[in-house]
Structure prediction request, 475 residues.
Amino acid sequence: MRKSPWGTLAVLALAQFMVVLDVTIVNVALPEMQVDLGFSQDNLQWVISAYTLAFGGFLLLGGRLGDVLGRRRVFLAGLSLFTVASLVGGLATSQWFLIAARGVQGLGGALLSAAALSILTVTYAAGRERNIAMGIWGGLAGLGGTLGVVAGGILVDAVGWEWVFFVNVPIGLALLALTTSTVADSRVVSDGPRAFDLTGAVLGTGAVLAIIFGVIRSEPLGWGSAEVIGSLVAGVLLLALFLVVEARSAAPLVPLRLFRSRSLSGSTLVLALNGGAFLAMFFLSAIFLQQGKGLSALETGLQFLPMGVAAIAGAMLATQLLPRFGTRPVQVVSALVGLAGLLLLTRATADGSYVTELLPGFVLYGVGIMGVGVPAQISALSEIAHEDAGAASGIINTGYQVGGALGLAVVSSLATSAVTSSLTSGAAPQAALVDGFQRGLLATAVLGLAILVLAAVSRQLLPTPEELAELAVAA
Prediction:
């Protein structure tokens, strides 16, 4: 029996919404976790870093496992791991128990996300149907990041930090029950025995893990530390070995021919920059609102809420404009809108009005980031055969995660150096924080400018004849 494509989309989008929500909802609860479990400041970062490391490191593997073993099977495995780890995290009574649960949660999230995007790719035909699905998928993901701050503040204040994990359990169980009846299974069809590139899997996963680990450790240790340099060098060497092995493998983890697709390569780079810009903007703005303007976590989340609503609007607007104008014009205009939002945010001051200084920037950036992201995802997958959907999804998601981690690390380092410089010059702590926020947002705007340049030279995907006929009837 054919599964309902829109039932499938509901399950996939809600699962991705839960994963994205978890990233920000946990951030809000960190101070309470630190008090209850006795975390040092250095160990506390691993509540976030363990998740980031596992999630980013296993996306490539998760994508290809879906192609070989069955995409629904891998999706269910990831969803199960994520749900169980959420329960264990909420029950944790020690630091390392919680950190271990976060690592397993990240692994589950990686399997879930990579499989979900590949299922979406093979379920919806290229064109209007896939564009709508991508718009809904992207819009809910954008809203999840924003709502996480609000939901985290409410849950921590009302019932305790444990509930930022427990809240995932009923959602995960409901999605597990719905998946079998709504999501069809699919995998690569082969005449011969299905092979798996174990060496490539180890090298590829190790390379991404080493690079992300080095980027994570750059914040507390500095870019010049032996640990950071050693991790990054090891990651690059493993990546080189990975490429050699993949070029010779009969069943590669990531078929290198995929990188000959200009759409996939270029769009992955755009998504990586988009991830870096978003995480940097969100991180700097959250610190600025709480430490610079003295807001609570819940108040901070409420001030981010218009950006989440704008992200949904941006995703839906991009979906409507793509059939009429194609991917390149939509990306270029959206990149301009997002860049304008970042530049407006650089003008914010500690005693300024939210309505005049922050709200316009948040709204413009919310519209812009999704107006760039939805066409980029559609373009990235436009030339990919169904048998490579998982591998391509892994590449896209890994690019976003590595780009996000690297962008955040670089921008936060620049912002921190600006704060230190201002304090050394005799500025008051609040004034120094504003200087760091403004410097960091300017650096983020440079990422936004790079996105604009790449969008301007991106491959243009035009409407299909069927879509043009629909537009003519609608007119």
